[in-house]
Amino acid sequence: MTEQQAVLDILKAIQSGYPQLVGNFAIIWWARMIDLRNKDHAARLDRHEARLTASETAQQKWDVRQARMEENISSMKLTLDRIYAQVSDQNRAQTR
């Protein structure tokens, strides 16, 4: 086998394996891009979950405050009704 024939055999081997090498590289690159994209989406999802948790906590506190205000308003109404009833009774007693 001559030196020229050996070089041609090496070139043929490279040519026959080149598409496989390029295909393997493309698959590895594609898988890596998907992995990086998934990690980025996971980080974004974590940030959104944190914001949602904070928003839910704030809403829950607001609901508790609103319930307390409604309870206070209800108590004030009962007190005013009682005062009105007492004043009405006194006015009726004075007019008799």
Gyration radius over CA: 41 Å
Mean pLDDT: 91
Category from helices, strands and their pairing: mainly alpha
Number of strands: 0
Amount of helix: over 70%
Largest sheet: none
* Strand portion: under 5%
The run of helices and strands is H
How many angstroms does the end-to-end distance come to?
Answer: 139 Å
Number of DSSP helical runs: 1
Low-confidence stretches: none
What's the shape?
Answer: rod-shaped
Commentary on this structure:
This protein has 96 residues and is mainly α. The protein has one helix at residues 3-95. The chain is rod-shaped and about 140 Å long. 0% of the residues are buried. The mean pLDDT is 91.
What is the strand and helix layout of this fold?
Layout: H1 3-95
In short:
The chain has 96 residues and is mainly α.
Please tag this protein with its features.
96 residues, mainly alpha
